[in-house]
Amino acid sequence: MSEGYTLHEDPRSGNCYKIKMVASYLGIPLTIRAYDILKGETRTPEFAANVSKANAIPVLEIQDDLGPRFIPESNAACWYLAEGSDLIPEGRFNRAEMLRWMFFEQNTHEPNIATLRFWYQFVGVDNLSEEQKAMITAKSNTAVSALRLLEDHLATRDWMVGDAATLADVVLFPYTQTAEESRFPLANYPAIGRWLERVENVPALTPPR
Amino acid sequence: MSEGYTLHEDPRSGNCYKIKMVASYLGIPLTIRAYDILKGETRTPEFAANVSKANAIPVLEIQDDLGPRFIPESNAACWYLAEGSDLIPEGRFNRAEMLRWMFFEQNTHEPNIATLRFWYQFVGVDNLSEEQKAMITAKSNTAVSALRLLEDHLATRDWMVGDAATLADVVLFPYTQTAEESRFPLANYPAIGRWLERVENVPALTPPR
């Protein structure tokens, strides 16, 4: 069976970068199809009809004998590519622990840290709606709680789960690495800083952005 | 190996109910330890020290020969209990598709639909902070998008993934079933209504709340 993958992405998105990390680490070639989310290029009827009705990136497109199929949601796409590799740990508890941090990332970490980065770096505070401006305090507070939980977890261990990099490290890496762009000084989180370096030193895991 | 489980929960929480669904379906006994989140009973130093530093429920506690271990995050706890059962489908694509909907649930569905339910039903609109009140419109809009995506998905299929109930149906069930408490009339979503009935008819999958 001949398999190929296309990543529908915006290169500025940390969610998209996660998938490139997994593919790079495993040596899987990805064809890139880039969209500019600031220009609404994923919010078109064509995107809904041909890629994903959720009108959001990333979407991993799988080409194989069954025809094109699509996986939205960054963490699910990472799982698909990583199945059978050492990025998913052996052991039932460790797998659940890895998923625990992956769900935490999508529920508590990304919606706050990534959204603030998007607003500060790409939209611009002056261009935010009043409704968005009103959410900055709550999002900042939850983001700090998330970073403190990571700092505490990493104070006594090298990796999020077990004794090597897993998908938990992968999915938490992009928006933690760019936390300064979300206005959270990483100097406040020394254990996170050491962990970021550790992830960067895993061969092929952090390709050029 | 003798195994036992304690679910640290608030009985009103749909996130906790997911875990009870999986345990009921698989015939796994759970010891219940209830907390009142409105009284801050999970926000204590004792809870942080003894159950979870994230100070949130649910937490699944595993008792076995290795001593007590804890899994926060409802969807990770569901995965732990369901490993090896038919709630996790065979087939790499179907597993990724199931995880896609589980991450969607935690990123897009639950933070909006469940939070609005909590505010309307348990906190009371009059008791919300100005910051919270300012978030109602955005949360309502995203919740409606999430429900429309589900409605569209279920218009042409009986189950979220494949041809039987999986964890994707389990984790999306609780806060969709109570969507009226979040002020979203289910009459607007007929395919969702038929799916809710289908889930309710799976033997043992929806124990008494």
Main traits of this protein?
transferase (chains A, B); globular; Glutaredoxin; homodimer; alpha+beta; Glutathione_S-Trfase (chains A, B); 2 domains; Glutathione S-transferase Yfyf (Class Pi), Chain A, domain 2; 209 residues; 51% helix
Secondary-structure map with pairings?
2 copies of one chain form a homodimer.
Chain A: E1 4-9, H1 14-26, E2 31-34, H2 45-50, E3 59-63, E4 69-72, H3 74-82, H4 92-123, H5 130-154, H6 167-177, H7 190-200
Parallel strand pairs in A: 1-2
Antiparallel strand pairs in A: 1-3, 3-4
Helix pairs in contact in A: 1-3, 1-6, 4-5, 4-6, 5-7, 6-7
Domain GST N-terminal (chains A, B): 3-89
Pfam families (chains A, B): GST_C (PF00043), GST_N_3 (PF13417)
Protein name (chains A, B): Glutathione S-transferase family protein
Question: Would you write up a description of this structure?
Answer:
Two copies of one chain form a homodimer. Chain A has 209 residues and is of the alpha+beta class. The first copy, chain A, folds into two domains: 4-82, Glutaredoxin, CATH 3.40.30.10; 92-200, Glutathione S-transferase Yfyf (Class Pi), Chain A, domain 2. Helices cover 51% and strands 9% of the residues of chain A. The first copy, chain A, has seven helices and four strands; from the N terminus they run E-H-E-H-E-E-H-H-H-H-H. A four-stranded mixed beta sheet of chain A has the order 2-1-3-4, with helices on one face. In chain A, a hairpin with a 5-residue loop joins strand 3 and strand 4. In chain A, helix 6 packs across helix 7 (190-200). Chain A is globular, with a radius of gyration of 17 Å. The relative contact order of chain A is 0.14. The model of chain A has no long low-confidence stretch (mean pLDDT 97). The interface between A and B is large, with 38 and 38 residues.
